[in-house]
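thought: user wants a sequence for this fold. calling inverse folding tool.
action: design(structure=
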């Protein structure tokens, strides 16, 4: 009778903790020094695609580390991979698609691990946005006490305006035209704010545009740039151009922006009225609370909301052309 004997390598390192991660790249992201280490050039290339060439927003944040681990296990996906399920407990936060594809964040240690199967590499968009970005954003904002807001942000002269609105409100098209008017781009839809100083940072890498945004683009070179961009497909099924803002053609915010304005993009047309309507303090607080349910439950929200009461709140209605909205925001930042 044969006797089963365990593989001594599995006894020595059953959790693959000692697996070699020789490839390393370092970036300054969201105010923190983030080192990526990996056993896969393909995985590290996804991090480079997302974070290389960005302005370094140094905010005195800690040194953080994200491990990108490629594993061979895992079946092929015959269709789109399952959505990541959020999980947490014992000081850990995570996102898991299945047993082989997940991200775990340990904020106390300043470290995160992203494990990806070779099969999932065929879906790089999901790896980048649902696992790597989750790890980076969660680790950086939690270790620094930042509030993660669902909002874009543009600025001028170091002063910023948050652009808040539901998906489909036209924030990305508005932002594209704000760039055309010379404003600095900070982030499309994920702003990270220090509650005490109201300094905002973000990842100024891509702008995602629906195909119908092209009808508002008159500049031939800009139209050609958008049409040459890769097309990504959201979980909702909506397809968008992924326009890379790096390369020198767009102005990226060189440093964190000090917030002065909160602009709520409304789907209603302005008609013959003004595009901007000033919000009083009560309406500003109500809209902020309603638009940020996740942030409102996080430490620092009370301080943030209190300080936002001193800012200028606006409702921005749709004009006949998105350029009008961009000019209105520019006017606020120039005042």
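)
observation: tool returned 335 residues.
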């Amino acid at each position: 009778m044969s006797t089963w004997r365990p593989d001594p390598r599995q006894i020595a390192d059953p959790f693959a903790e000692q697996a070699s991660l020789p490839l390393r790249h370092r970036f300054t992201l969201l105010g923190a020094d983030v080192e990526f280490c990996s056993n896969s050039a393909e995985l590290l290339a996804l991090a480079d695609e997302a974070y290389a060439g960005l302005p370094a927003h140094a905010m005195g944040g800690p040194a953080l580390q994200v491990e990108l681990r490629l594993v061979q296990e895992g079946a092929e996906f015959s269709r789109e991979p399952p959505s990541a399920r959020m999980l947490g407990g014992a000081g850990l936060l995570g996102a898991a698609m299945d047993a082989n594809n997940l991200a775990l964040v340990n904020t106390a240690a300043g470290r995160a691990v992203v494990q990806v199967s070779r099969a999932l590499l065929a879906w790089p968009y999901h790896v980048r946005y649902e696992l790597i970005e989750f790890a980076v954003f969660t680790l950086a904002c939690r270790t620094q006490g930042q509030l993660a807001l669902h909002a874009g942000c543009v600025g001028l002269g170091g002063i910023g305006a948050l652009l808040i609105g539901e998906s489909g409100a036209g924030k990305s098209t508005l932002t594209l035209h704000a760039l055309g008017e010379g404003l600095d781009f900070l982030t499309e839809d994920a702003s990270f704010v220090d509650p005490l100083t109201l300094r905002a940072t973000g990842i100024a890498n891509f702008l995602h545009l629906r195909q119908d945004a092209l009808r508002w683009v008159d500049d031939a070179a800009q139209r050609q740039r958008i049409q040459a961009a890769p097309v990504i497909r959201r979980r909702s099924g909506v397809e968008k151009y992924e326009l890379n803002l790096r390369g020198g053609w767009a102005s990226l915010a060189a440093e964190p922006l000090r917030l002065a304005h909160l602009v709520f993009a409304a789907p209603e047309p302005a008609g013959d009225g003004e595009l901007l309507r000033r919000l009083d303090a009560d309406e500003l607080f109500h809209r902020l609370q309603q638009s940020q349910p996740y942030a409102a439950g996080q430490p620092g929200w009370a301080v943030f909301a209190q300080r936002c009461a001193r800012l200028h709140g606006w409702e921005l209605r749709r004009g006949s052309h998105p350029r009008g909205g961009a000019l209105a925001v520019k006017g606020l930042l120039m005042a």
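thought: summarizing for user.
answer: Here is the designed sequence. Residues 19-144 form one domain.
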